[in-house]
Specification:
Elements (H helix, E strand, L loop, with lengths): L6 H18 L6 H13 L1 H7 L8 H20 L1 H7 L9 E5 L3 E5 L3 E7 L3 H13 L5 E8 L7 H13 L4 E5 L1
Parallel strand pairs: 3-4, 4-5
Antiparallel strand pairs: 1-2, 2-3
Helix pairs in contact: 2-4
Length: 178
């Protein structure tokens, strides 16, 4: 979809949106507020107005969501790798991964431990990814699910439910990063 938007224009718009998303703490925004921002950007002359020159104006909002903000979310999760490793008491320089996973993010470590991380709003996906990726081969251990708090699991009862799900899936650690 981005093939029609010149690279320099796409990068300028992406930088603008990513900067605003950082300011808004995008990861923690409720869906209704995200929808409002997609709409605002689509109607903004300096964002949607420019993009509408390269695509059907009805596609601008979807383009912003799928082509500009999904990569933002993936990039920000990958930026969190050091925090994830630190929270698990793993040293980044000494923790080598044999496999890198995306959707959700994760690593298969040299010793067979599987770790995955993502937003707390996606806890079911993150926990099941640890379980599923560990089941692929003998010698893999479903080691850790790290959840970046998005406001969806701040209640202790919710966290206990998530920890219990992790325990039942055989995941050694389920932790949150605020």
């Amino acid at each position: 979809m981005s093939g029609n938007v010149p690279k320099d224009i796409r990068e300028q718009i992406q930088d603008r949106i990513w900067s605003k998303a950082d300011d808004l703490q995008w990861r923690k925004l409720p869906d209704i507020e995200r929808a409002m921002w997609y709409e605002n950007w689509a109607k903004d002359d300096d964002v949607g107005g420019i993009l509408a020159h390269f695509m059907d104006p009805r596609r601008v909002r979807v383009y912003i969501k799928d082509s500009l903000l999904k990569p933002y979310q993936r990039a920000r999760l990958e930026d969190g790798l050091e925090r994830v490793l630190a929270a698990l008491d793993l040293e980044s320089g000494k923790t080598m991964a044999t496999t890198v996973f995306y959707k959700p993010h994760g690593r298969l470590l040299l010793d067979g431990r599987v770790i995955c991380w993502g937003n707390s709003r996606d806890w079911k996906i993150v926990l099941f990814a640890v379980f599923e990726r560990a089941c692929h081969d003998a010698g893999r251990e479903p080691y850790a699910a790290v959840l970046m708090e998005t406001g969806q699991s701040t209640r202790e009862s919710t966290r206990e439910l998530i920890k219990e799900a992790g325990r039942r899936l055989g995941i050694a650690k389920v932790i949150w990063l605020e």
